[in-house]
């Protein structure tokens, strides 16, 4: 998913040396995964995370609006 998202953006993908792309994608995916796991534990499990996301959707959070575009 990271590879598809970043690889689809020529400005970003052209800035990453070809021989380092796999490592960069894996590192980004690891950071996203760790961030989500931390949010889940801080929000009281998946239900808390979903509640937080639901609140962000109804508040018009620009991050979620961008992701959903």
Structure, explained:
- This protein is an all-alpha fold and 69 residues long.
- The protein is built from 5 helices and no strands.
- Residues 63-69 have low confidence and may be disordered.
- The chain is 77% helix and 0% strand.
- Helix 3 packs across helix 4.
Distance between the termini: 16 Å
Give the strand content.
Answer: under 5%
Q: Tell me about the biggest sheet?
A: none
| Low-confidence runs | 63-69
What is the overall number of helices?
A: 5
- The structure class reads mainly alpha
Can you count the beta strands? Answer: 0
User: Roughly what is the average pLDDT, rounded to an integer?
Assistant: 73
Global morphology? elongated
- H/E series, N to C? HHHHH
Report the radius of gyration as a whole number of Å.
15 Å
The helical percent reads over 70%
Topology (SSEs and partners):
Elements: H1 2-7, H2 10-13, H3 21-42, H4 46-59, H5 62-68
Helix pairs in contact: 3-4
Question: What's this model, at a glance?
Answer:
By secondary structure, this protein is mostly helical.
Give short descriptive properties of this protein.
69 residues, disordered C terminus
């Amino acid at each position: 998913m990271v590879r598809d998202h970043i690889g689809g953006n020529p400005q970003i993908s052209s800035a990453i040396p070809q021989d380092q792309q796999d490592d960069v994608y894996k590192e980004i995916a690891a950071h996203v995964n760790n961030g989500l796991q931390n949010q889940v534990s801080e929000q009281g499990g998946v239900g808390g995370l979903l509640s937080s996301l639901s609140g962000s959707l109804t508040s018009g959070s620009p991050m979620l609006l961008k992701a959903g575009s």
